[in-house]
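Backbone-to-sequence.
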């Protein structure tokens, strides 16, 4: 704020608003807005919120109209001697200069705080950037090592794939050889079986032919006039037994047994 500014700011620490209408002016050269002045100076003794000075005098606190009427301007200093008018004007200008100086100091303080915070933030940002750069460098190293590992795995995978293809080819070759040998063994086994079974089949056919053609025909023997009993005997070759002849272990081996009807 400069001397050419036509407005003041409330000196309450948490207010800092431009003054308009009415304002509260103290003997310690501070000014407050109507809201905070009415609230702070209503109790006794009054304490200045800016510098904590005790304001116990009758004219230590004055509520002023910042935009007085023309009639007030014409009559407020009327009848006073020039030296009194100049003294009042000098004190009013000193109050204004003090307010400007306080505002400039406040702005410088705010600027220094902002610069300090900015430097701290820049320092923190620099540290964060350095840590990020270190992390990025380590991650790049890890990526490079992982790429090497991946290339090694790719090479191993290629070798294993080639070995697997070679084993598959060998397996297919061995499977073909196995199938051919099995087929050959099956053909040879069938031929040998036919060769071994051929004499037995011939002998079986010969025996069946012998049974189908007996050497002698059966004769029917009758007893003539000795009753109605008939005997059927099948005469075989020498040493053969009759058809109805049975051998018993209790009798002699050469004795025939004839069943009577």
């Amino acid at each position: 704020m400069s001397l050419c500014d036509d407005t003041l700011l409330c000196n309450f620490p948490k207010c800092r608003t431009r003054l308009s209408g009415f304002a509260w002016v103290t003997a310690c050269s501070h000014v407050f807005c109507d809201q905070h002045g009415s609230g702070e100076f209503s109790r006794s003794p009054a304490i200045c919120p800016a510098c904590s000075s005790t304001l116990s005098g009758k004219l230590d606190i004055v509520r002023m109209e910042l935009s007085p009427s023309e009639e007030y301007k014409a009559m407020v200093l009327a009848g006073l001697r020039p030296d009194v008018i100049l003294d009042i004007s000098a004190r009013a200008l000193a109050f204004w200069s003090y307010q400007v100086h306080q505002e400039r100091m406040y702005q410088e303080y705010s600027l220094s705080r902002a610069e300090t915070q900015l430097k701290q933030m820049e320092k923190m940002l620099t540290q964060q950037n350095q840590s990020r750069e270190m992390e990025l460098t380590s991650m790049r190293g890890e990526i490079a090592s992982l790429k090497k590992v991946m290339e090694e795995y790719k090479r191993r995978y290629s070798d294993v794939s080639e070995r697997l293809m070679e084993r598959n080819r060998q397996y297919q070759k061995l499977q073909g050889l196995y199938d051919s040998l099995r087929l050959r063994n099956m053909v040879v086994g069938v031929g040998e079986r036919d060769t071994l079974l051929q004499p037995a089949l011939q002998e079986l056919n010969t025996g069946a032919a012998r049974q189908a053609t007996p050497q002698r025909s059966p004769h029917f023997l009758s007893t003539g006039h000795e009753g109605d009993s008939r005997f059927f005997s099948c005469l075989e070759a020498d040493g053969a037994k009759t058809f109805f002849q049975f051998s018993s272990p209790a009798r002699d081996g050469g004795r025939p047994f004839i069943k009577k009807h």
